[in-house]
Design goal:
With 189 residues, this protein is mostly helical. The protein has helices spanning 11-22, 27-31, 39-48, 50-79, 85-102, 104-107, 124-137, 141-152, and strands spanning 155-157, 179-182.
Length: 189
């Protein structure tokens, strides 16, 4: 009487499956073999066993390298006339896309950022004051006070009128002052 497909998880079976994955096989093809579990069983194991999930993820990253090797083989066969150029191009594009998804750091699309960055040097005190002022200007007085307090237990007093100032009306000069006032160990309310 045949034993049937395995349904019990074992570290040995995990290593075999991950080895096939790393060498370039996909799970559906692996699970078509008589001595392998069905795909649903493997997906359940991936959710249930963190060690298997980690090894499987690493195997998929390694499979991206196998895809890169296959791209080389496909291009050589296209150059020799064994594959039609259009078919080779489609296969190479599919392999590149999958490799980029499986190991994006190595094979994914590279993004280039372009722009200007202005950097100015500020000491910690100036940075705390600027941060508190920006937060206070945007209606975040309590957040500004707490940020300043926890940054170095220095409390920066926000403007008296901590709500955002309407661009059409200017706050009175008396309400625009900021001062470091409290160095106690009690955070603001």
């Amino acid at each position: 009487m045949p034993a049937g497909r395995p349904s019990d998880y074992t570290p040995e079976l995990m290593q075999i499956i991950c080895g096939f994955i790393a060498s370039g096989e996909n799970l559906r093809r692996i699970c078509q073999r008589e001595d392998m579990p069905n795909p649903d069983t493997v997906y359940n194991w991936l959710r249930k066993y963190p060690e298997f999930a980690d090894n499987y993820a690493r195997a998929r990253e390694a499979r991206a390298d196998a895809r890169a090797d296959r791209i080389d083989e496909i291009s050589q066969k296209a150059l020799s006339g064994e594959y039609k150029a259009d078919a080779a191009r489609v296969a190479i594009d599919a392999e590149k896309w999958q490799a980029g998804k499986e190991n994006p750091k190595r094979y994914g699309d590279k993004l280039t950022l372009d722009g200007e960055l202005k950097v100015s040097k500020m000491d910690d005190e100036d940075l705390r004051v600027k941060l508190a002022l920006l937060l206070a200007e945007n209606g975040a007085a309590q957040c500004a006070m707490k940020a300043a307090f926890y940054a170095d237990k220095e409390l920066i007093q926000p403007p008296v009128n901590a709500s955002p100032v309407n661009s059409h009306t200017e706050a009175p000069e008396s309400e625009k002052t900021n001062a470091i006032v409290d160095k106690s160990d009690n955070p603001p309310a």
